[in-house]
Design brief:
This protein has about 160 residues and is of the alpha+beta class. It has one domain: Immunoglobulin-like, CATH 2.60.40. Helices cover about 20% and strands about 35% of the residues. Strands 1, 6, 7, 9, 10 and 11 form a 6-stranded mixed beta sheet that branches. The longest helix has 17 residues.
């Protein structure tokens, strides 16, 4: 018996592949954050950035319900970024302090980027900011330095 693999797809082949696609999608769906996580990882590798760690402090009291953080701090080997999350007229306002003046900090919100340069005290701010996932990209102050990127936080 000889098999001919040069025969073009027909409607039966398309129906079988479509049924297989639906079965796999139901049995093992793609996690909703997978595409964004892959994009982030590839972007991080492409720009050779250092990943800042979210600084955690021991909580003194356990809450019965989820609590919203009012500030978060990210640290890396070269800099620190503290972000205060506030509300101003029911819109989200972000005030941040980076370790140094004249440093460019980009807020990455989905596919949008908004850059700000820190003042002499290291302060930058963004207003208004839509709810959702944000991360920050801190450009190096010196030539040849590596940028620093933070993990995403949800506003």
């Amino acid at each position: 018996m000889t098999e001919n693999y040069d025969v073009p797809f027909d409607d039966i082949d398309v129906a079988i592949l479509d049924a297989l696609r639906r079965t796999v999608a139901l049995a093992d769906p793609v996690p909703p954050s997978l595409v964004g996580d892959i994009d982030f990882t590839l972007s991080l590798a492409a720009m050779n950035a250092e990943l800042a760690a979210l600084t955690t402090e021991a909580a003194a009291v356990r809450a019965a319900s989820p609590e919203n953080a009012e500030s978060v701090t990210f640290t890396s080997s070269t800099m620190t970024l503290m972000v205060v999350i506030g509300r101003d007229d029911s819109a989200i306002r972000l005030d941040a302090w980076v370790s140094g003046g004249g440093i460019t900090v980009e807020m990455i919100h989905g596919s949008e980027r908004s850059a700000a340069v820190s003042d002499v005290n290291g302060r930058v701010s963004w207003f208004p900011v839509a709810p959702g996932l944000v991360r920050f990209l801190i450009q190096p102050l010196t030539a040849g330095g590596r940028p620093v990127i933070t993990p995403a936080i949800e506003l």
